[in-house]
# Entry
Amino acid sequence: MAKPTFDTPEYREFPSPPAIEEGAMEHLETYIAKPEHQEALGWAGELEEGWEQRAVDKLGDLLGKNKALRVYLDSCVKCGACTDKCHYFIGTRDPKNMPVARQDLLRSVYRRYFTLSGKLFPDLVGAKDMNKEVLDDWYKYYHQCSECRRCSVFCPYGIDTAEITMAARDIMNHIGMGQKYTNEILGKVHKIGNNLGLPGPALMDTMEGLEEDVFDDDGVAVKFPVDMHGADVLLVTPSADFFAEPHVDGLIGYGKVFHQAGISWTVSSYASEAANFALFAGSTEQMHKVARRIRKVAQEFGVKRIIFGECGHAWRVAYSFLNTLAGPFDFLDPKYPVPQHILEFTHDLINRGALALDPSANDDKVVTFHDSCNVARASRMGTKPGGQFDIPRAVIRAVVNNYVDMDPETTHEKTFCCGGGGGLLTDDLLELRVKGALPRMEALHEVVQSHGVTHMAAICAICKTQFAKVLPYYGMQMDMITSVHHLVGDAIILGGKE
Ligand code: SF4
Ligand code: SF4
# Structure
């Protein structure tokens, strides 16, 4: 691992609001998208004369379309309840990473152009002209927010900073100052079908390789089909599942579950990506375009249901928006929810006794669970409130004998972001990612010390990649992070060796 050029924060004995360090993250700016990546998405290639007015016009456009945005910008009373709730503020100490300060970056421009007091007495109400200095602050600090929504849980008015961040990013994309990481990835999805730019033949090779691996390990011919017309299930999963560790073991787990349940399934080489980075870019148009790929193949293949693999923001987009973005899905079997999460599917099979499981296969582990923020605070699973917390835990408890939760102040709806969500999982933001992981690392470290936890399971591709990267900075092993369906896959009894 390359030597870090920053200090990893130290574990705090009594976690408390950190001392402020003005400008601590002023130096960190993620790479700006190249003109060709911007233009491929229909946005200005770079800042051009008159961008200030175009930014204000775009804000006006968003205020007209999104009433909540105006309410969020109008209703903050500066009570301070959110200030110490953001993992990036906790880890970096930069006061501009306090959620209320982050909101104010956009709020000050909103006040200047869209409120009477801001037009008449800008200095009195903290209103600011749209200028390069303001834009530079937007670019830095709206790319130090993972859109995790933890702060909104603590806000008495329910102000959603993530929505404000998305609006700011939408405006920046529009005027030609988008982020390289997110926008390059969006371009790959449109062109090739997945974030990684993995073409169809490579995907087929990968899936064939998994069939061989499972056969070698278990002696059972578990299929990993690609583009199989007529399958019952279209599995839409993050492309990291196709080969990255620890994700791929989760995909092997899904395959074993489908095999054991006797349900035919397939992935698609055209819609080979569950992730929808347009959410991070704040672009409804782009989100729509990515989601339509899924509808197209579901129709072409004639599947009965669509199941999403382990990916946090993908599930948020799917659960909250898929029907609006790409519906109606009236060609699917109405017996099943649209969409369905792989954990709902596996949980249902477990409840019906349809899977033979041996949890002692995981007896070498003491497991804890990291609630991913987009699942925890922006979606649900099952039919009961809180299903997004209970179902993953019920599945884990069915396949492991040793499970322990982390500090309740850091789980369920109060969960801390892994530090790499919201389009920040790029190495040019590594310092932010490591520092932002501090609260989760502290909670994990605590159960490692007190209960001998050896593994942390997660159901998000970003969380898994992020933790594999940052765990060593906190003195823990990168392979502590695992997929929930890895645990499931190891516990399934496939019928013995042939
Ligand atoms: S949404 Fe998450 S990352 Fe953004 S300000 Fe709130 S707590 Fe911080
Ligand atoms: S908790 Fe809500 S109202 Fe209070 S300062 Fe934060 S955003 Fe404003």
User: Anything to note?
Assistant: The CA atoms of residues 66 and 449 lie 46 Å apart. The beta strands are 233-236, 265-266, 305-308, 340-341, 367-369, 455-458, 481-483. The first strand starts at residue 233 and ends at 236. The pocket of iron/sulfur cluster (ligand 1) is lined by residues 85-86, 88, 99, 102, 145-151, 161-162, 165, 417 (CB under 6 Å).
